[in-house]
């Protein structure tokens, strides 16, 4: 026997057993119908005993018997097992005389004393032999052709009954599956916050999920929402939707649509703004079944969107106002600067004349003047000096805004050298110790930067603390595409509450009025502004002031 024949036989037997188990007959009670068929078989054969045998892998199971008590026995002992797989009807008038059946324990007396034996195999439509319908007697007997034909009919009936049992089992399983899957779908539909409404082809509403029931004000038990309980409106919130524009109607009669916006209104409840998506439902073969609509609540989205639109509009309006204010400010600033420039210029000349004549009087009439007159002349001269300084400060403020801006690579170390020269008297008189860290080359206007540093170092000296030697440190650190420059002193400091307003025009800290006019830092801010930078008073621990400002790096 070749290997392939063996494996074919094994495969065949596996399939046969699978078919047998698929019917789930073994170890299950036979029903009344099967018992009746076995009884009829005994009667047809004219014998007292008949059995319905099923052949398992190792045993013969007598599913139902008549005339004797059935039992399970080994497959190797079974008379039916000898030929049932041939699919042919077996008829042995006296088994004790048949060489194949005579040694069988059912014949020898070990299990029984069978003499007459006939069996109709039970073969499925797929060709799997499950067992046989067997009639037998302890005495020899005969069968005519009609009896054989009727016994074969009964075997067919038995298979039909098997098949019916199998089908009803499958149907029950399918029903359970369908029930489970329906439960799952129902749970999903109830859980989601999208309202789903479906109707059959005639437009009768069939399904409202939890969200739909809530939105339309339906009680759980209600099949249909009461028409007076809600209104559907167009997205404008004012125009009621005519019935033929209702989403379900549209989906049923004019095909699918996407994200159509509408409003669901109910008394006593806030309007709900929704987007509706509708689809007609069709069976696989194209038969129309109805339509489904999904409604998505976009109330919050739309509220946000409206708030955003309002904010945008407000911002745009404010932007316009701001632009107008800036333009106005620019215009008045330019006018002011022109005014300051002209006035300062026209004041300097007469002031020069006044102080010139005062000095002349003091020189020429030195001998004639009494002490009182000399003191008055000195006071007048110092007043003109103060006025000159104010005018110079105004002029330099005007220049800082008006002078042409000519940025170029400017070495801050060189600028500092010039500043030291400009302030040499003040530095020497105050005994100021300047510490200058290595400074970078920046992209700036040298004239304006000189004015800037002169003001800041000048202030550091001006507002020194008489209680300690004046120290001023200048340093710069790179910061991306710019440098942050620091001018730090150990002077009297600026109280924190003044730090924000100190760059305003004419702003001074109380008690320092005698030293200046409050124009220097405004001028500094202008210069830094023109370089696209920022100037501020830094917070620092301990006494003194640190001013920082940014300047663009070269390149
Ligand atoms: P001015 O020095 O001409 O008054 P500024 O605009 O330069 O004007 O300065 C404004 C005020 O800021 C000054 O009156 C002074 O009170 C304060 N201030 C500026 N720099 C310093 C500094 N380095 N230390 C202490 N106070 C300062």
Automatic annotation (TrEMBL):
Its EC number is 2.7.13.3. GO terms for cellular component: plasma membrane. The keyword Kinase applies. One of its GO terms (biological process) is osmosensory signaling via phosphorelay pathway. Its main location: membrane. InterPro entries: BphY/WalK/GraS-like (IPR050351), GAF-like_dom_sf (IPR029016), HATPase_C_sf (IPR036890), HATPase_dom (IPR003594), His_kinase_dom (IPR005467), HisK_dim/P_dom (IPR003661), HisK_dim/P_sf (IPR036097), PAS-like_dom_sf (IPR035965). This is Sensor-like histidine kinase SenX3.
